[in-house]
Amino acid sequence: MPVNFTPDQKRALAARVNYYRELGIYDFYRRESDVARTPSPAEGVAHTSSLVQSEHDIGVVINAPAPNMFAPELPENAATDPAEALRIIRQDLGDCTRCKLHKQGRKQIVYGVGNPRAELMFIGEGPGADEDQQGEPFVGRAGQLLNKMIEAMGLQRSEVYIANVVKCRPPGNRTPERDECETCMPFLLRQVQTINPKVIVALGAVAAKNLLQMNASMGELRSRSYDFRGSKFFVTYHPAFLLRDPRQKSEAWKDLQQVMKYLGLKVPPKAQS
Ligand code: URA
């Protein structure tokens, strides 16, 4: 019987199914006892994918950290500290040719930069020309503004970690395509899992939508925080957007103040006005 899932249930199921895909698990089987009985609508069995069990049966909690018993065997699991783990993930990425961005003019892979034990992680969309040239995220004009945002929070760039949804520059700075984001995402998620930040800030809609797997407006995305794999997740405007529309800077500052409140940071006097 068709069942109408709530948006939260849909997101939770999609996140869980994706998580299993990342582990290389594609098939889901019902227990015989489940197949035998007719589910009630409240149990929410998907009619489109009869392989997926009800939300109740698979124990979905929205964006809950993955249970350890399902933790994949990843090479970085052998690392003794997060810096080493990040190096191992970088090695695993290699001279990546997993998506078409590798043959569309990228100079180099832009992996991520910052403190491997950062409490705060920023995630942008993808490298631009300057980042592609220098091999570091957010070093161009948008990066200069991001630095100011970080400093306004009373932090140094070196204290946080900065990465992007895709690690190769999309040609002409176009928006990264879905397959490119999906191919790169497991590496970003491994970086997130290694750093285990208290807070993740998604910079712009591309980062927010790809990570949360939600299709919503920036207004909706920014209106709340989320629990994301053990981190608190906030959304704010992309610095490149703020360069184009500086009137939105006060809105972005409100988002960052929420982050600061969560992290227990005091607004530095310089940024108070
Ligand atoms: N824009 C991004 O989204 N990321 C960068 O690294 C630079 C600009």
Sequence-ordered SSE layout with sheet pairings:
Blueprint: H1 7-22, H2 32-36, H3 82-93, E1 113-114, E2 120-124, H4 129-134, H5 141-152, E3 161-164, H6 178-195, E4 199-203, H7 205-212, H8 218-222, E5 226-228, E6 231-236, H9 239-244, H10 249-263
Write structural notes for this entry:
- This protein is of the alpha/beta class and 273 residues long.
- It has 2 domains: 60 residues, no CATH class; 198 residues, 3-Layer(aba) Sandwich (Uracil-DNA Glycosylase, subunit E), CATH 3.40.470.
- It contains 10 helices and 6 strands; from the N terminus they run αααββααβαβααββαα.
- A 6-stranded mixed beta sheet has the order 1-3-2-4-6-5, with helices on both faces.
- A hairpin with a 2-residue loop joins β5 and β6.
- α3 runs antiparallel to α6.
- The chain starts with 6 loop residues before the first helix and ends in a 10-residue tail after the last helix.
- Bound molecules: uracil.
- Uracil binds next to α5.
Short recap of the structure:
With 273 residues, the protein is α/β, with parallel strands linked by helices. The chain has ten helices and six strands; from the N terminus they run H-H-H-E-E-H-H-E-H-E-H-H-E-E-H-H. It has two domains: 60 residues, no CATH class; 198 residues, Uracil-DNA Glycosylase, subunit E (3-Layer(aba) Sandwich), CATH 3.40.470.
